[in-house]
Amino acid sequence: MHLTEFKKILIIISTKSNNYKKIENKISKKFNDIFKNNINKRFEIILSKDKYSISNESKKFAENNNSEQSLLIIVGGDGSISEAVNQVYHTNINFSFLPNGTGNDFSKTVYGKLKFDEILDNIENIKIEKIDLLKINEKVSINVASFGYESIVLKKSLQIKENFPALGSLSFMLGVIFTLNKIQKYNFEYELIMDNGEIVQGEKEYMLTAICNGKYYGGGFNPAPYASITDGIADVNAVEYVSISKLLRVISLYKDHRHLSVKESRNYKVISGKYKRKDNSTFIGNIDGNIEEFKEVNFKILPEQLNLGIFKFK
């Protein structure tokens, strides 16, 4: 499908990135070239103004253009993509994105190692594919929801990135270093419904748990190398409590999915499940990189829930 076949296209550029003006110019030039022979300008480019802009503008666009002939494109990182998806996944519009965040982890699942410029160069043709989402309590996740030590690291890395934006994805590794003294046991009660219908229940001391639709999180860490966004299954990776030295080894193995062979790493193919602390206390987690505080995590896979536009390469 060619972009000119859509009746309405809205492009929202997140201004969280320092290069958003440069990105806006590149996108504007590309779209003006694509639509130069069209009498009616069918696209609009807007910049986010505050932390609510992406959610609000996405919701408004979906309400006013609730049609399969409409396309919303988010330009930003996983958090921005997730904010928009939560507003439009239950509508008829098509959704797409251009990666321009720090980690761009969901993009790695869809486009592999391709970067912003390479994708933009091939943006004219698009294939619409129905993909799964994760329902996490009252929100949805397009990529990964996680909780435990990893989210403590993420929270710290976001603080580092805010003060030193040039560090980029290195902020996550610094987050690991600065939070080693905050490692603790998380005693969870859990119930998982597997893809074969089996129910697995138990209680375990976990350090980190990732519920995955996509394959990557944390700037390239790979908790679910065999995950698929179209299989109707969630991949769950949970790491039991280990010593600091072993934890550092496990984290290093996450980069190339060798953590699957570590005995403390538990991996499940599930349809739904729930986790809560045995003492009923709250715990820090995140949904697609957006920090949350949970009392309990109830999740399920939502098959074929979003019309995702994937740009086709020549």
TrEMBL record:
Q: Cofactors per UniProt?
A: Mg(2+)
Gene3D superfamilies for this protein: 2.60.200.40, Probable inorganic polyphosphate/atp-NAD kinase, domain 1
- At the top level of its lineage, which domain of life is listed? Bacteria
* GO molecular function terms noted in the UniProt entry: ATP binding; kinase activity
Q: Which GO terms describe its biological process?
A: phospholipid biosynthetic process
Q: Which keywords label this protein?
A: ATP-binding, Kinase, Lipid biosynthesis, Lipid metabolism, Nucleotide-binding, Phospholipid biosynthesis, Phospholipid metabolism, Transferase
In this chain the DAGKc domain maps to 4-139
Q: Spell out the PROSITE patterns in the cross-references.
A: DAGK (PS50146)
Family the UniProt entry places it in: Belongs to the diacylglycerol/lipid kinase family.
Tell me the protein's name.
YegS BmrU family lipid kinase
Upper classification of the organism: Bacteria, Bacillati, Bacillota, Tissierellia, Tissierellales
